[in-house]
Design a protein that fits this description.
Helix content is about 40%, strand content about 15%. By secondary structure, the chain is α/β, with parallel strands linked by helices. Strands 11-10-9-8-6-7-12 form a 7-stranded mixed sheet, sandwiched between helices. Helix 4 (about 105-115) links the parallel strand 3 (about 95-100) and strand 4 (about 115-120). The N and C termini lie far apart (about 95 Å).
Length: about 350
């Protein structure tokens, strides 16, 4: 064979090998990313038995379970967190969970600047494949059950919803609670009061507004407030209902049984471990920022807390409805908009700033 023929044969062989290599690479799955450090930022200390503590505890549990270094940054307040995000990124964070709606602008900015994946809340339109995930969660299915419980518990035929703001997560639970009340007893009034536009840590405001709602007739309070719920609890513990009896409190996200003085009726408890686990797994599989994360009754990532203060027959009735939601025969759709939530209420009070 001549030299020219050998050269042409070699060129054809090299081309074939190259094309085979390209085809093999194209058919291979994306290379898994190495997630070494998990960071979470919370506005308050993780001692509120609620939003901050549940987020912190879940992130810590996921880090331990998956062998990842845990990087918490807590008690940051609701101001500018650009410096903290930048510091965490520089310290090697693989994923930064910005656990407050007030962080949902700063986190994507620093994430893009530093090339670090971030998770935010209350801004689902900001998701970006590989970079930004949103976990605007809704415990509305559990809140609907809480509304049934409240309607069956109230003796004054008035229940109250006290909120520290109107973010989407609070709105969806407020609406579902009201729907559960109305489905159980349309005669029960629902008194809705807002402490302030972002009064999440305002315990004094929580107590003041809750006392006013109790004074207007409510003997069951559904409270959504983070740190503000401690003030709500104080009001419930120290104020009698207009009928002369005890006032009951239904909490959200966490379990305050450890500090209950006999007035905690229940709580719509959130378990964020499945959510954060899915985030880490998605980041490893190059699927981060490509889907929505949710919590629901069906996998117990949302649960209605059973306490000793709930009669067995009432709990059985609530559980019957839970089964209907889980099997799909009863669908509770989330309501995110504040104006639609307010339209469901018997009265609405916007507390003045103090």
């Amino acid at each position: 064979m001549t030299k020219t023929k050998w050269t042409k044969l070699a060129q054809v062989s090299m081309l074939a090998l190259t094309l085979c290599g390209v085809a093999a690479f194209a058919g291979a799955p994306a290379e898994a990313k190495d997630v070494k450090k998990l960071a979470i930022l919370t506005p308050e200390d993780p001692t509120d038995y609620g939003w901050n503590q549940q987020g912190f505890d879940a992130a810590k549990a996921v880090a331990e379970k998956m062998g990842i270094e845990f990087m918490p940054a807590t008690g940051l307040g609701y101001g500018d967190v650009h410096p903290t995000l930048r510091e965490l990124a520089d310290d090697g964070a693989s994923l930064m969970i910005a656990h407050a709606s007030g962080y949902n602008t700063a986190a994507p900015e620093i994430g893009a600047e530093k090339g670090v994946a971030v998770a935010i809340v209350d801004k689902p339109d900001a998701i970006k494949a590989g970079e930004v995930a949103d976990y605007t969660l809704s415990g509305h299915e559990g809140a609907y059950l809480a509304g049934i419980l409240a309607a069956k518990t109230s003796t004054t035929k008035s229940v109250g919803i006290v909120v520290s703001g109107e973010p989407p997560s609070w709105n969806s639970q407020s609406a579902a609670f009201a729907q559960g009340v109305k489905a159980t007893d349309p005669a029960v009034k629902i008194l809705y009061a807002v402490i302030g536009p972002a009064a999440y840590a305002d315990a004094a405001g929580g107590r003041r507004v809750t006392e006013s709602v109790i004074g207007a007739g409510a003997d069951v309070i559904f409270g959504q407030g983070d740190g503000a719920t401690f003030g709500m609890l104080q009001a419930v513990e120290t104020t009698k209902s207009t009928g002369g009896g005890n006032v009951w409190f239904i909490d959200v996200i966490g379990d305050k049984t450890a500090i209950d003085k006999g007035h905690l009726l229940s709580s719509v408890v959130w378990n964020l471990v499945p959510v954060y686990t899915a985030m880490v797994e998605d980041l490893k599989a190059d699927k981060f920022g490509t889907k929505a994360y949710s919590i629901q009754l069906s996998d117990d990532s949302v649960q209605l807390l059973k306490t000793k203060n709930i009669p067995d027959d009432v709990w059985a009735s609530v559980n019957d409805t839970r089964k209907q939601i889980v099997d799909g025969s009863l669908k509770i759709e989330p309501v995110w908009e504040a104006e639609k939530v307010r339209a469901l209420m018997s009265s609405v009070t916007d507390a003045p700033a103090q």
